[in-house]
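User: My advisor asked me to double-check a structure prediction for Trehalose 6-phosphate phosphatase before group meeting. I don't want to rely on an old file, so could you generate it fresh from this sequence?
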Amino acid sequence: MLEELAREPQVWALFLDIDGTLIDLAETPEAVVVPEGLISTLSRISNLLGGAVGLVTGRAVSFADQLFSPLALPIAGLHGAERRNSAGDLERLPQDDDFEALKRSLARVTADWDGVIIEDKGSAVAAHYRQAQQWAGALDAVMQSAAEEAGADYTLQRGKMVIEIRPARASKGEALKAFLDAEPFLGRKPIAIGDDLTDEAMFKVANELGGLSIRIGELRDTAAVCAIPSPDALRKILADLARQA
Ligand SMILES: O=P(O)(O)OC[C@H]1O[C@H](O[C@H]2O[C@H](CO)[C@@H](O)[C@H](O)[C@H]2O)[C@H](O)[C@@H](O)[C@@H]1O
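Assistant: Sure, here is a fresh prediction for Trehalose 6-phosphate phosphatase from the sequence you gave:
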Protein backbone atom coordinates (compact mmCIF):
# COMPACT_ATOMS: atom_id res chain seq x y z
CA MET A 1 0.00 0.00 0.00
CA LEU A 2 3.01 2.31 0.25
CA GLU A 3 4.36 1.24 -3.17
CA GLU A 4 3.00 4.52 -4.54
CA LEU A 5 5.70 6.33 -2.58
CA ALA A 6 8.45 4.68 -4.61
CA ARG A 7 6.56 5.14 -7.89
CA GLU A 8 5.75 8.83 -7.41
CA PRO A 9 7.91 10.16 -4.56
CA GLN A 10 7.30 13.78 -5.56
CA VAL A 11 3.54 13.39 -4.95
CA TRP A 12 3.47 12.21 -1.35
CA ALA A 13 4.26 13.43 2.14
CA LEU A 14 4.55 10.88 4.94
CA PHE A 15 3.49 11.58 8.54
CA LEU A 16 4.34 9.01 11.18
CA ASP A 17 3.25 8.60 14.76
CA ILE A 18 5.87 7.13 17.12
CA ASP A 19 4.55 4.98 20.01
CA GLY A 20 2.61 1.96 18.84
CA THR A 21 3.33 2.85 15.20
CA LEU A 22 7.06 3.13 14.47
CA ILE A 23 8.07 1.50 17.74
CA ASP A 24 6.46 -1.17 19.90
CA LEU A 25 4.63 -0.18 23.06
CA ALA A 26 6.51 -0.83 26.28
CA GLU A 27 5.52 -1.11 29.93
CA THR A 28 6.72 2.41 30.76
CA PRO A 29 7.28 5.58 28.68
CA GLU A 30 11.05 5.40 29.22
CA ALA A 31 11.38 1.70 28.33
CA VAL A 32 10.75 2.08 24.59
CA VAL A 33 13.38 0.85 22.15
CA VAL A 34 14.09 2.09 18.64
CA PRO A 35 14.87 -1.09 16.69
CA GLU A 36 18.15 -1.34 14.84
CA GLY A 37 17.92 -0.04 11.29
CA LEU A 38 14.83 2.12 11.81
CA ILE A 39 16.72 5.43 11.91
CA SER A 40 18.57 4.71 8.69
CA THR A 41 15.31 3.50 7.07
CA LEU A 42 13.59 6.79 7.96
CA SER A 43 16.54 8.81 6.75
CA ARG A 44 16.54 7.06 3.37
CA ILE A 45 12.78 7.48 2.94
CA SER A 46 13.10 11.16 3.82
CA ASN A 47 15.72 11.52 1.06
CA LEU A 48 13.46 9.63 -1.36
CA LEU A 49 10.57 12.04 -0.64
CA GLY A 50 12.71 15.17 -0.84
CA GLY A 51 12.49 15.69 2.93
CA ALA A 52 8.68 15.35 3.09
CA VAL A 53 8.63 13.00 6.08
CA GLY A 54 7.46 14.21 9.50
CA LEU A 55 6.97 12.69 12.92
CA VAL A 56 3.67 13.58 14.62
CA THR A 57 3.66 12.45 18.22
CA GLY A 58 2.32 12.89 21.73
CA ARG A 59 5.91 12.88 22.98
CA ALA A 60 7.81 16.07 23.63
CA VAL A 61 10.07 16.97 20.69
CA SER A 62 13.10 16.80 23.01
CA PHE A 63 12.32 13.19 23.97
CA ALA A 64 11.70 12.12 20.36
CA ASP A 65 14.99 13.75 19.33
CA GLN A 66 16.86 11.63 21.87
CA LEU A 67 15.14 8.49 20.57
CA PHE A 68 15.96 9.11 16.92
CA SER A 69 19.32 10.88 17.25
CA PRO A 70 21.19 11.77 15.08
CA LEU A 71 18.18 12.00 12.77
CA ALA A 72 16.21 15.23 13.30
CA LEU A 73 13.16 15.08 11.05
CA PRO A 74 10.48 17.78 10.98
CA ILE A 75 8.32 16.95 13.98
CA ALA A 76 5.13 17.92 15.80
CA GLY A 77 5.26 17.04 19.50
CA LEU A 78 2.75 17.10 22.37
CA HIS A 79 -0.07 16.16 19.94
CA GLY A 80 0.76 19.18 17.78
CA ALA A 81 1.33 21.77 20.52
CA GLU A 82 4.99 22.12 19.56
CA ARG A 83 6.38 21.86 16.05
CA ARG A 84 9.75 21.98 14.32
CA ASN A 85 9.64 22.70 10.60
CA SER A 86 12.05 21.43 7.98
CA ALA A 87 14.30 24.49 8.47
CA GLY A 88 14.77 23.42 12.09
CA ASP A 89 12.71 26.26 13.64
CA LEU A 90 10.88 25.09 16.74
CA GLU A 91 7.64 26.67 17.99
CA ARG A 92 6.95 25.89 21.62
CA LEU A 93 4.45 27.23 24.16
CA PRO A 94 5.77 29.51 26.92
CA GLN A 95 6.06 28.10 30.44
CA ASP A 96 2.82 28.37 32.43
CA ASP A 97 3.32 28.65 36.23
CA ASP A 98 -0.20 27.47 37.06
CA PHE A 99 0.28 24.38 34.90
CA GLU A 100 3.62 23.68 36.61
CA ALA A 101 1.81 23.75 39.98
CA LEU A 102 -0.94 21.49 38.64
CA LYS A 103 1.63 18.90 37.50
CA ARG A 104 3.25 18.94 40.94
CA SER A 105 -0.13 18.47 42.57
CA LEU A 106 -0.93 15.48 40.31
CA ALA A 107 2.38 13.88 41.24
CA ARG A 108 1.60 14.43 44.95
CA VAL A 109 -1.93 13.02 44.78
CA THR A 110 -0.84 9.86 42.95
CA ALA A 111 2.47 9.34 44.77
CA ASP A 112 1.21 6.28 46.66
CA TRP A 113 -0.74 4.81 43.75
CA ASP A 114 1.46 1.82 43.00
CA GLY A 115 2.39 1.56 39.33
CA VAL A 116 0.87 4.87 38.24
CA ILE A 117 3.38 7.00 36.30
CA ILE A 118 3.05 10.75 35.89
CA GLU A 119 5.01 11.78 32.81
CA ASP A 120 5.88 15.47 32.85
CA LYS A 121 6.24 16.59 29.24
CA GLY A 122 6.49 20.35 29.81
CA SER A 123 3.30 21.84 28.36
CA ALA A 124 1.47 18.50 28.72
CA VAL A 125 1.26 15.81 31.34
CA ALA A 126 0.41 12.12 30.94
CA ALA A 127 -0.91 9.82 33.67
CA HIS A 128 -0.13 6.20 32.82
CA TYR A 129 -1.90 3.14 34.29
CA ARG A 130 -0.49 0.31 32.10
CA GLN A 131 1.06 -1.18 35.23
CA ALA A 132 -1.73 -0.12 37.56
CA GLN A 133 -5.08 -0.89 36.00
CA GLN A 134 -6.72 -0.98 39.44
CA TRP A 135 -6.18 2.80 39.54
CA ALA A 136 -7.69 3.50 36.07
CA GLY A 137 -11.03 4.80 37.38
CA ALA A 138 -9.57 6.95 40.14
CA LEU A 139 -6.94 8.34 37.80
CA ASP A 140 -9.57 9.22 35.22
CA ALA A 141 -11.51 11.18 37.85
CA VAL A 142 -8.39 13.00 39.07
CA MET A 143 -7.33 13.88 35.53
CA GLN A 144 -10.82 15.11 34.60
CA SER A 145 -10.91 17.42 37.55
CA ALA A 146 -7.32 18.58 36.91
CA ALA A 147 -8.21 19.32 33.28
CA GLU A 148 -11.16 21.44 34.46
CA GLU A 149 -8.87 23.28 36.86
CA ALA A 150 -6.36 23.88 34.05
CA GLY A 151 -9.07 25.79 32.17
CA ALA A 152 -10.06 26.29 28.55
CA ASP A 153 -6.47 26.43 27.27
CA TYR A 154 -6.08 22.73 28.08
CA THR A 155 -7.96 19.59 27.15
CA LEU A 156 -8.10 15.93 28.14
CA GLN A 157 -6.56 13.44 25.71
CA ARG A 158 -7.16 9.73 26.25
CA GLY A 159 -4.89 7.08 24.78
CA LYS A 160 -3.64 3.56 25.32
CA MET A 161 -3.60 3.08 29.12
CA VAL A 162 -2.96 6.80 29.47
CA ILE A 163 -4.92 9.97 30.22
CA GLU A 164 -3.27 13.25 29.34
CA ILE A 165 -3.83 16.96 29.76
CA ARG A 166 -2.51 18.84 26.75
CA PRO A 167 -2.84 22.32 25.25
CA ALA A 168 -6.25 22.61 23.57
CA ARG A 169 -5.22 24.87 20.73
CA ALA A 170 -3.46 22.23 18.67
CA SER A 171 -4.10 18.75 17.33
CA LYS A 172 -2.27 16.30 15.14
CA GLY A 173 -4.66 17.28 12.33
CA GLU A 174 -3.72 20.96 12.64
CA ALA A 175 -0.04 19.95 12.71
CA LEU A 176 -0.45 18.11 9.40
CA LYS A 177 -2.06 21.17 7.84
CA ALA A 178 0.73 23.42 9.14
CA PHE A 179 3.40 21.14 7.66
CA LEU A 180 1.57 21.01 4.32
CA ASP A 181 1.57 24.81 4.12
CA ALA A 182 5.33 24.95 3.54
CA GLU A 183 8.12 23.26 1.61
CA PRO A 184 9.06 20.47 1.29
CA PHE A 185 5.50 19.33 2.09
CA LEU A 186 3.68 22.01 0.07
CA GLY A 187 1.31 20.63 -2.59
CA ARG A 188 1.87 16.99 -1.64
CA LYS A 189 -0.76 14.44 -0.64
CA PRO A 190 -0.45 13.31 2.98
CA ILE A 191 -0.16 9.75 4.15
CA ALA A 192 -0.84 9.62 7.91
CA ILE A 193 0.03 6.50 9.90
CA GLY A 194 -0.91 6.08 13.56
CA ASP A 195 -2.46 3.77 16.10
CA ASP A 196 -4.31 5.72 18.77
CA LEU A 197 -7.16 8.15 19.48
CA THR A 198 -4.92 11.21 19.06
CA ASP A 199 -4.13 10.07 15.50
CA GLU A 200 -7.77 10.25 14.43
CA ALA A 201 -7.42 14.02 13.85
CA MET A 202 -4.61 13.48 11.34
CA PHE A 203 -6.47 10.59 9.67
CA LYS A 204 -9.40 12.93 9.00
CA VAL A 205 -7.16 15.63 7.53
CA ALA A 206 -5.31 13.12 5.34
CA ASN A 207 -8.67 11.82 4.03
CA GLU A 208 -10.00 15.34 3.39
CA LEU A 209 -6.90 16.28 1.43
CA GLY A 210 -7.06 13.27 -0.89
CA GLY A 211 -4.30 11.38 0.90
CA LEU A 212 -4.27 8.10 2.73
CA SER A 213 -4.85 7.22 6.40
CA ILE A 214 -3.46 4.02 7.82
CA ARG A 215 -4.14 2.61 11.26
CA ILE A 216 -1.74 0.25 12.99
CA GLY A 217 -3.91 -2.55 14.38
CA GLU A 218 -7.53 -3.21 13.55
CA LEU A 219 -9.67 -1.08 11.26
CA ARG A 220 -12.38 -0.48 13.86
CA ASP A 221 -13.85 2.78 15.27
CA THR A 222 -11.48 4.83 13.18
CA ALA A 223 -11.42 7.35 10.34
CA ALA A 224 -8.45 5.49 8.82
CA VAL A 225 -9.16 3.77 5.53
CA CYS A 226 -6.69 0.92 5.75
CA ALA A 227 -4.68 -0.95 8.32
CA ILE A 228 -1.29 -2.52 8.93
CA PRO A 229 -1.38 -5.16 11.68
CA SER A 230 1.58 -4.09 13.85
CA PRO A 231 4.56 -1.75 14.20
CA ASP A 232 6.77 -4.64 13.14
CA ALA A 233 4.79 -5.07 9.90
CA LEU A 234 5.04 -1.33 9.25
CA ARG A 235 8.81 -1.37 9.83
CA LYS A 236 9.19 -4.17 7.28
CA ILE A 237 7.19 -2.19 4.70
CA LEU A 238 9.28 0.92 5.39
CA ALA A 239 12.54 -1.06 5.15
CA ASP A 240 11.46 -2.43 1.74
CA LEU A 241 10.65 1.09 0.63
CA ALA A 242 14.02 2.38 1.85
CA ARG A 243 15.79 -0.31 -0.18
CA GLN A 244 14.22 1.19 -3.30
CA ALA A 245 15.42 4.69 -2.41
O1 LIG B 1 1.49 9.98 19.64
P1 LIG B 1 2.42 8.89 20.06
O2 LIG B 1 3.80 9.01 19.51
O3 LIG B 1 1.84 7.51 19.81
O4 LIG B 1 2.55 9.05 21.64
C1 LIG B 1 1.41 8.74 22.46
C2 LIG B 1 1.86 8.54 23.88
O5 LIG B 1 2.88 7.53 23.83
C3 LIG B 1 3.51 7.18 25.06
O6 LIG B 1 2.62 6.39 25.82
C4 LIG B 1 2.32 5.17 25.18
O7 LIG B 1 3.53 4.42 24.99
C5 LIG B 1 4.18 4.01 26.23
C6 LIG B 1 5.49 3.36 25.85
O8 LIG B 1 5.28 2.34 24.94
C7 LIG B 1 3.24 3.07 26.96
O9 LIG B 1 3.85 2.62 28.18
C8 LIG B 1 1.91 3.79 27.26
O10 LIG B 1 0.99 2.90 27.84
C9 LIG B 1 1.31 4.35 25.96
O11 LIG B 1 0.17 5.13 26.23
C10 LIG B 1 4.00 8.39 25.79
O12 LIG B 1 4.47 8.02 27.06
C11 LIG B 1 2.96 9.50 25.86
O13 LIG B 1 3.56 10.66 26.39
C12 LIG B 1 2.49 9.80 24.46
O14 LIG B 1 1.53 10.84 24.45
